[in-house]
Design a protein that fits this description.
Number of helices: 8
CATH superfamily of the domain at 3-130 and 149-180 and 233-241: Vaccinia Virus protein VP39
Order of helices and strands: HEHEHEEHEHHEHHE
CATH class of the domain at 3-130 and 149-180 and 233-241: Alpha Beta
Shape: globular
Structural class: alpha/beta
CATH topology of the domain at 3-130 and 149-180 and 233-241: Rossmann fold
Number of strands: 7
Strand content: 25-35%
Helix content: 25-40%
Strand order of the largest sheet: 3-2-1-4-5-7-6
Length: 244
Amino acid sequence: MSPWSRSAGTLFLDWLASRTGLAWVDVGCGNGAFTELLVAKSAPSSVCAIDPSDGQIATARQKLSAKQVEFSIGDAMALPYDANRFDVAVMALVLFFVPDAHKGASEMVRVTKPGGMVASYTWDILRSGSPTQPLWEEMDALGKAAQRPPSADVSRFEALKALWAKLGIRDVETRELVVERTFANFDDYWLSMVVSSPAGVLGRLSETESAELKRRLQARLPASANGEITVHASATAIKGCKAA
């Protein structure tokens, strides 16, 4: 789990403030990093974690062997669980990657018990909230447009609240999750971008283009007197209860 994701995930779980001993479903669990954080912070009785990638699930199973966690391969838009099974359903930095965000959210509602919690958070990419926003924008300027998540619009608070209302979720609350990272210098920041960027994004650049991208980013991000660079990111979070 990247430092960005861990910081946002910690804020998210603190905000949910769920009691211990609940049954959770972690939809779009990826390599299990958020699942691991969930187990450590929320002390669930059980967690069903699901992702469409068999490679990610294999990594998750190696990483987390807690007996209360069950990893499965599956589609967020067609969850393989009975209705009314879980106390809490979450998507951590996932909803904007689901091709049909409404269907993904409705599946979370379906598998949640009446009165249970349905919650999600995503980077606020339409308001420049993603940690990779500077990189995306400078790649766009180079004519090498970076691909955004397919359901980017659902990262807006207005869209999230409208979706939760449409699904009949009650007692809806939203919160902005603001996180920051300080890098020792620009090279430290650049290395973090190379490591965290989706495979192939920077690989599409020639040596000249990569050098120009670095120059643009360094000019864009002011350094402190000791050379440190501080970068902020923000996520939109939403939670509510399934109608009884």
